[in-house]
Amino acid sequence: MANFYSVAKTLEEFLKELIDKGMTIPPQVITELKTGRSVTSIHQRMTEETDVETLTEVELKAMIALQNVEMNLLSLADEKFGKDYAEQWQKKVNEAYMDNTKPQVAAAKTPVNIARYATGVPKGEHWIRVQTSWLENVQDLDDKLESRSLSTIPQDDDYLLVYGRKADVSDFLKEIRQIVGKMGS
Fold it and tell me: Do 72 and 44 share a structural domain?
């Protein structure tokens, strides 16, 4: 499971460094980081007895907020300081997602791998990577994607990149998690 606490802390360091280098950060990015940290704080306080639906919703909110911050900061860094600088920070953020030093709540099994910076996705589109093996038993997958105007890009590592409007990606993820949760019961 992703370590939202570590990711939020790393993104905060990234933001501070960009400000120290003289970059002006859009207010919505700062607001989104505050939202991500708040939701992460709530997530840390949840117990294993928390129902799966509530836990999933909190995880989703944290993930979306932090991904929005990450996407914006990496884009700004790439434009202002170049690809190498942005890639260094992308690596730090990726490591933060996998950091196991801060204990996290045991969540329901999820078919989602939290993705970071994605090539091929138009700027401003929201996206997520979903493990294809979890989608094999989902009936009418193409209809579910099409009804939400979502696009996909197959990945080499058994994942499918799904992207589109924020609300559509969130709705799709919620539905897939409910289906997979029922299959696991």
Answer: yes
Element (DSSP H or E) covering residue 130? strand 126-131
Query: With a threshold of 0.90, does the pTM exceed it?
Result: no
- The 10s digit of each residue's pLDDT in 29-83 is 999 999 888 888 887 777 566 667 777 778 888 888 888 899 889 989 998 999 8
| 98 and 58 in a common domain | yes
CA distance 183 to 53: 15
Query: Both tokens of residue 83?
Result: 């690809």
Q: Which of 84, 102, 120 is the last residue of a domain?
A: 102
How many other C-beta atoms can be found within 10 angstroms of the C-beta atom of residue 173? 21
Number of domains in the chain: 2
How far is 10 from 16, CA to CA, in rounded Å?
A: 10
User: Are the C-beta atoms of residues 175 and 138 closer than 8 Å to each other?
Assistant: no
